[in-house]
């Protein structure tokens, strides 16, 4: 199991590299949250690009350091766009991030998510029910009946309940899995880390999970999947804690949060409370 000081050093290095190099991490993301995803990516030091079309998804893979696929609001064209983009990233050896939002809603979403399995995303980010459902859909933990436990974009399970599913997914992909919750879980299949902080107001504004996926893609362009995911999650927890100290309502909190993403230093991010254990 990796040592805590190694993790913290890796986070500092990743955050410093992102600020210095301004990596592009293109996104095919939820139309409800495109603005938030792009602005969060810019605030942490990355560069954003949002597309819909199949050939443009492939272009994002070629042009950027990583790519983000969010399943939130599917359009008919995505039946071609998403598999081609994931396949291009896999073939190019470039990291891609999957957010299986809404898993279990509709046949197209299920078909697309099942089809992603051989392309092994570098990072999977979701709530507890989404992670349990995806592991079941991919026959890694539980079974496909777990799909019924995901309720739209909300979770009906705890982070602790998703631990085994997250570990199974990470071991299969060889990457990292993040489970968002009151205490966020991040695993690479051998180490399980818990990052705390943030604010309850994150649940009162749409897009915090989606934008975290986009920020994870920015970090994935500069670091290994586990370090990238830890850095993104810690960055969010630092910013959320600080924003909550100055804002007490959803709209002002979102503005303060983006400001705090921008202000957080690599040391701030690395020193966010973190606990680790063996998987």
TrEMBL record:
Swiss-Prot/TrEMBL cofactor(s): Mg(2+)
Signal peptide location: none
Enzyme Commission designation: 2.7.1.50
InterPro entries xrefs: Hyethyz_kinase, Ribokinase-like
Gene Ontology biological-process annotations: thiamine biosynthetic process; thiamine diphosphate biosynthetic process
Similarity section: Belongs to the Thz kinase family.
Role according to the record: Catalyzes the phosphorylation of the hydroxyl group of 4-methyl-5-beta-hydroxyethylthiazole (THZ).
Protein name: Hydroxyethylthiazole kinase
Annotated organism of origin: Ellagibacter isourolithinifaciens
Taxon lineage: Bacteria, Bacillati, Actinomycetota, Coriobacteriia, Eggerthellales
